[in-house]
Amino acid sequence: MEMTRYLDIFIEESKEHLQSINQQAMLLEKTPGELSIVNEIFRSAHTLKGMSATMGYEDLANLTHCMENVLDAIRNNKLNVSSSVLDVLFASLDHLEAMVVEISEGGSGKRDVTATVKELEALEKGEVPQSTQAESKNKAGSLQDYDQYEKQIIIQSKEQGFHAYELSISLREDCILKAARVYMVFEVIEQIGEIIKTLPAVDMLETEQFGTHFALSILTKESAENVKERILKVSEINTVEVNDIKADQLNISSNFENEENKKIEQQEVSPEDKKSEVQQPSKKSEVQQPSNTSSSGKTIRVNIERLDQLMNLFEELVIDRGRLEEISKSLKSMELNETVERMSRVSGDLQNIILTMRMVPVEQVFNRFPRMIRGLAKDLGKKVNLEIVGAETELDRTVIDEIGDPLVHLLRNSIDHGIENPEVRSSKGKNETGTIYLRAFHSGNHVFIEIQDDGAGINKQKVLSKAIENGILTKEMSENLTDKQCFELLFASGFSTADVVSDISGRGVGLDVVKNKIESLGGSIAVDSTEGSGTIFSIQLPLTLSIMSVMLVEISREKYAIPLSSIIETAIIRKEDILSAHNQKVIDFRGKVVPLVNMKDIFEVPGSMESGQHVPVVVVRKGDKMAALVVDSFIGQQEIVLKSLGQYLTSVFAISGATILGDGQVALILDCNALIK
Amino acid sequence: MMNEEKVIIFQLKDEEYAVPVQHVKSIERMQPITRIPRTASFVKGVINLRGVVTPIIDLRSRFEIEEVSHTDTTRIIIVSVGTIEAGLIVDAANDVIDLDKEKIEPPPEVVGGVDAEYIQGVAKIEKRLLILLDLVKVLNPEKLDVQPTKESIQ
After folding, report:
1. Using 50, 70 and 90 to split pLDDT, how confident is the model at A438?
2. Does residue B148 form part of some domain?
3. 3-state helix, strand, coil in chain A (%, to 5)
4. pLDDT tens digits for range A452-493
5. Torsion, CA A182, CA A188, CA A194, CA A197, rounded to 10
6. Has residue B152 been placed in a domain?
7. Beta strands in chain B (DSSP E)
8. Strand order in the sheet with A163-171
9. Phi, psi angle pair for A4, to nearest 5°
10. Is A413 designated active site?
């Protein structure tokens, strides 16, 4: 299954979100009236829901959805934050955590959460739960889920004459040293057999993070009665229930799991293949384990911080390399020249390796979308075709890790709000199947990701009236808005145009989260739409590469670096070839009219205009637009280290950063995107 | 002794100013500055400070005191406030002293032409009058009026 490739990312992100929900929930306990905290929790829960639905962990998604409903009720003042509400929230978090842990250990993430779901639903309806006692009992009761490995052990041990029991043990209410009692119970069992699973997990038992109940699964040759008697000898134990784990029980659940898996594996497995179906249970466990081990053998996980350190050190080296090259040029010593050249080559290779270490094709994120789209389209009864273009486009790993959620949000939006139902589409004369294009491409210093659908487009009137209704805008303000400003409203906090809240999208958390996320990555997002024919979301992301190839040019006596990625060509044109159109100087560049930009004027460079017969120009582009930048001379091509201008100078026009040249001077890097509008 | 603060004293025109020593990272001699086009006039550009690109502000021009050409005593005081790091061009860096906090008085309306907004207080030590700068306000990036992008091509 392709999904395994994203499992790591999913687990990491889920852990992060759970962590943040936990922290925020603790805060909420201290300041129950603080709605901004509820919003934070809500966002994390929302993202978690989206991710787990994408990965096919239904129980996770289900539980988070219920959590979301309760949070929504709190947010809208329908429900007060009380300790009992928080108890249920924390209980759900415990479940979520356990599920994520199980998934990270190779499990299916399945868990009986119906009890908690019911409590959440009750909360949403405004009922207060009776007690936490019942809940801890529920927790202890749901030990039925065993992963493949555990099942295997149970089945094998049974064949060897062991009994498998499920013990449900409750301590006395006044028990003080719960952990110690648990330890004593463990001692007793280990004398007669083996513990294969505990609920809650062992470390939680050790730190007394449970009520009075806990459950164990054990393997032993002793009889049930015997086991019970031995455990009751430990003091402060209230009751012990011993249940046999039946083999058929395990088989049923493992079969069930297989069916689930088959559903996921699309229609490739044809129903006539009955033979393979019979063999599947054993095959599956064989296949699963080797695939895990082989992938861990090939790669090694490196902390991204270490990569950053490596990068920083290398940057220093690149600067010194430039300096060395200049020194050797001026010294004209053959031997030094050779050594420096060799060093340059080696460090060039080194640079490539370091860079590629951080670069990942965007494919890694894109590949999980087709399945998600398919599932969503089915749920909503729509026909959608996803076209992916440019999946090989590479992006920095840090960006890749972050960009997944925003894209999921946007795609969900496109399907839910954009693409119409098949009937509506055919009545409008459109193809019944809607198309969503997901494109990625490089342009200049940026990577663009576009999500375009051929759906209904954005209804401007609806957006405006909703914005007025939600208090984002006054009626007077709404009258003078341009289309663009109107679409911008979609990104405002607390905005949603969906008539019905669905679990796909449409609570208005999506788009403002998306925008924040992209901006935090140093990018931007824009939306354009034509009513009736579709919407396009365009995300611009910086290449967070810190080393890049540039063309150094001189303007008067100042040196500027133009990124090679945005240069089409350099040329020297004759004065008489410069034409004039609408007060704008233009040149004819390979049959295209390209505006001429005099850098000296734009950058207000001191010094007189040179009046030679020939004008050096650098033709740059942004998307399909071009411009010819007039400079004084070309210095040459060079690898430079991108440095920021610091926190003080954050928005300098047409400058994206600076670099330090071989002679120690600072040169500014041109941002061609700002020069071409 | 808790009431004493170490300050660096520098000169601007005829006045002496002070900044707390914990905000000062280093004092540099003048060096070539790379101009940054289309920024506020008091932003002189950036320098390469041991591998870090650091913006440089001319304090004279920041406080609207007439500019003079740089001399041998001209210094760049590298200061950092929060996440912002910048260099301040001053006429001379004179001294480091311990300043008794009790001697600091609130600023009068106008001190040596510098807007009272940027002044935390003044202190009189023997016959010297020290002006304590409020670096947070001096380095407020919002004061950078970046010019509009009128010349970009449609």
Report:
1. very high
2. no
3. 50, 25, 25
4. 988 888 888 888 887 787 777 777 777 777 787 788 888 876
5. -20
6. no
7. 4-12, 15-20, 24-29, 43-49, 52-58, 75-81, 84-90, 92-100, 104-105, 110-111, 114-115, 119-125, 128-133
8. A193-199, A213-220, A163-171, A237-244
9. -60, -25
10. yes
Does the beta carbon of B139 lie under 8 angstroms from any beta carbon of chain A?
yes
> At residue A284, what is the residue type?
K
DSSP calls for A173-218: TT-S-HHHHHHHHHHHHHHHEEEEEEES-HHHHHTT-S-SEEEEEE
Most B CBs within 10 Å, among A319, A626, A649, to test the B interface: A649
- Strands (DSSP E) contained in A224-304 are 237-244
Token output for A13 = 């992100």
* 3-state secondary structure string across A27-81: HHHHCCCCHHHHHHHHHHHHHHHHHHHHHCCHHHHHHHHHHHHHHHHHHCCCCCC
Q: Distance from B138 to chain A by nearest Cα, in Å?
A: 11
Its domain, for residue B85, covers 4-143
CB A604 within 8 A of CB A558: no
User: Is B132 inside any structural domain?
Assistant: yes
- Residue B119: pLDDT band (50, 70, 90) is confident
SS3 call for A376: helix
DSSP string, B9-46: EEEETTEEEEEEGGGEEEEEE----B--TTS-TTEEEE
Q: Quick one: tokens of A305?
A: 């911080």
Among B35, B51, B55, the residue with its CB nearest the CB of A649 is B55
Listed residue (A44, A90, A53) closest to A200, CA to CA: A90
Looking at CA atoms only, how far is residue A484 from chain B in angstroms? Answer: 17
Which secondary-structure segment (H or E) carries A568?
strand A567-574
Q: How far apart are CA B12 and CA B32, in angstroms?
A: 21
CB A628 within 8 A of CB A597: yes
Exposure string for A188-217, b = 16+ CB within 10 A, e = fewer? bbeeebebbbbbbeeebbeeeebbbbbbbb
Average pLDDT over chain A reads: 77
Tally of CB atoms within 10 A around A243: 14
Of residues A676 and A292, more confidence is placed in A676
More confident residue, A61 or B150: A61
Residue carrying structure tokens 């003044």? B122
B154: exposed, middle or buried (Cβ count in 10 Å: 0-12, 13-18, 19+):
exposed
For residue A245, the Cα-to-chain-centroid distance in whole angstroms is 40
**Interface membership of B41 toward A (CB under 8 Å):** no
What's the CA gap between A353 and A339, in Å, rounded?
21
Q: Which residues of A537-562 are buried (b: 16+ CB within 10 A; e: fewer)?
A: bebbbbbbbbbbebbbbebbebbbbb
Which CATH number fits the domain that encloses residue B50? Answer: 2.40.50.180
**What is the DSSP secondary structure assignment for residue A564, as one 8-state letter?**
G
Q: Of A68, A102, A394, A450, which one is the catalytic site residue?
A: A68
Model pLDDT for residues A590-599, shown as the tens digit of each residue = 888 899 988 8
Q: Which residues, other chains included, contact B33 with Cβ-Cβ below 8 Å and sequence gap of 6+?
A: B44, B45, B46, B47, B56
Instruction: Please check whether residue B21 lies inside any domain of the structure.
Output: yes
Is the bond preceding residue A200 a cis peptide, omega within 30 degrees?
A: yes
Side-chain half-sphere CA neighbours of A605 within 13 A? 21
Question: How many structural domains compose chain B?
Answer: 1
**CB A215 within 8 Å of CB A166:** yes
State the pLDDT confidence band at A251, using cuts at 50, 70 and 90.
low
Contact A601, A585 (CB under 8 A): no
Q: Is A648 on the interface with B (CB under 8 A)?
A: yes
Asked if B96 and B75 count as a contact pair (C-beta separation under 8 A), the reply is no
Structural element, H or E, at residue A16: helix A4-30
Of A656, A483, A412, A551, nearest in space to B53 by CA: A656
Closest CA to A201 of A325, A343, A97, A86: A97
Contact B34 A667 (CB under 8 A): yes
